[in-house]
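Narrative of accomplishments. A recurring question from our advisory board has been how the design workflow behaves on a single, concrete structure rather than in aggregate. To address it, we present the structure tokens for one chain from the evaluation set, followed by the sequence designed for it. No filtering or post-editing was applied between the two.
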């Protein structure tokens, strides 16, 4: 009788420890923070500035789960060059920061740095630049997204060796944890 009780106890414990696999779902997503058209030459400032809002309700992969979000992890912030004019410098270099704030604040907090990004190389190689992030702040952004559903991002940068004409896309790679039980 004790053997049957022990086996039954082990089976019940195994079932409950694996329930997490059936009640939680991890949903990876990439959110577009925004696109930035840049036109840098000898008569314009050599800066790039953009403020935009990331809104979870606008992310197709999450729309059906907005009321069931139970956790979130920011994995990376990336820059892609989706257009770069032929007349642009092949040696142009971008440096700057990505910052964030709550939707109701204008206090910018450092999130990631952009160091020696070569737009020409990114464009011709069709590759992404992964920003050097402040990992502790990644979790703070995830917490803000969970509590407010939105967060403001600020992109500030400078260019060296212009002219540079093109379009930059900034994306956030993340994963949401969804609780499937009401």
């Amino acid at each position: 009788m004790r053997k049957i009780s022990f086996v039954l106890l082990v089976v019940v414990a195994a079932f409950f420890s694996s329930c997490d696999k059936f009640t939680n779902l991890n949903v990876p997503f990439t959110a577009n923070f925004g696109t930035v058209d840049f036109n840098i030459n000898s008569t314009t400032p050599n800066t790039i500035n953009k403020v935009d809002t990331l809104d979870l309700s606008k992310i197709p992969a999450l729309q059906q789960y907005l009321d069931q979000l139970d956790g979130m992890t920011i994995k990376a912030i990336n820059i892609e060059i989706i257009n770069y004019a032929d007349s642009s410098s092949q040696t142009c270099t971008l440096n700057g920061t990505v910052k964030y704030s709550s939707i109701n604040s204008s206090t910018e907090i450092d999130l990631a740095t952009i160091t020696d990004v070569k737009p020409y190389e990114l464009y011709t190689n069709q590759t992404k630049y992964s920003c050097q992030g402040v990992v502790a702040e990644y979790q703070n952004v995830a917490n803000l997204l969970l509590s407010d559903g939105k967060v403001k991002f600020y992109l500030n940068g400078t260019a060296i060796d212009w002219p540079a004409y093109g379009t930059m896309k900034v994306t956030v790679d993340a994963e949401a944890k969804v609780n499937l039980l009401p």
